[in-house]
Amino acid sequence: MRCAFISDVHSNFEALAAVVKEIDRLGIKKIFSAGDIIGYGPDPGSCIDLFRRRGIVSVLGNHDAFVAEGMDRLNYNYIAFTALGLNCFMLSADDKAYISGLKRSESIDDLLLVHARPPDDLKNYVWSVHDIFDLVPGMDKRVYIIGHTHSPVMFKVERSAAGYVGMSQSYSRSNLVFESGNTKITRYVSGEVKLEPGCRYVFNPGSVGQPRDGDPRASFGVLADDSFEIRRVKYNIGRTVKVMEDKGYPEFLHSRLFKGR
Ligand SMILES: [Fe+2]
What is this structure's pTM? Predict the structure, then answer.
């Protein structure tokens, strides 16, 4: 069965609606979210409404934790904190109750869903093959879905009792291979990764509402029985920016949406 994975919607309803429309077009019934439903964008309530209506299962992100756990303001930069303040002002009591009900991780069969870093961390980024290398000893699931970086990436972890060549790194197109001892990690930044027996995977579907990989289109992932694929969707960025301008958001927060940064 195919499932869709989204992350870092960040109150961007235009982007979320476009992604959900595309997921519906693909005939995918189930959607999971790696958190950060709120923050940065102008429409937190509409996003939470759509999550509820569509039955999207989400874990807690670090921006959601500002509402749910009262995460300390020092955990956010000035821009993020400003936007969170604006978001909180717009949330109803029901919206806050919904956010407060999100768990730090969700275990779904042989898959773990978490915002930043397995098993349940909300703040520390997973960017590189070296980050994955540190996680390997604790990996007891086949697939991990994470978000937080706002950049789509897919990692495959292979282990061999015979060991690999030793410490080596090689690049082929945009993919990176890292080998050390009996562990080999391959990083992919686009397209589709085939799921192979015996391997473990960490997938980040990228951000719906504020991509930062230089591509302003909304990003999401599709997990099938034997593959994971990153997909991108165009949405009406101008409409989101207009709402932000009308609500008095700082210029930096809307101009970055056109750049995907
Ligand atoms: Fe985020």
Answer: 0.94
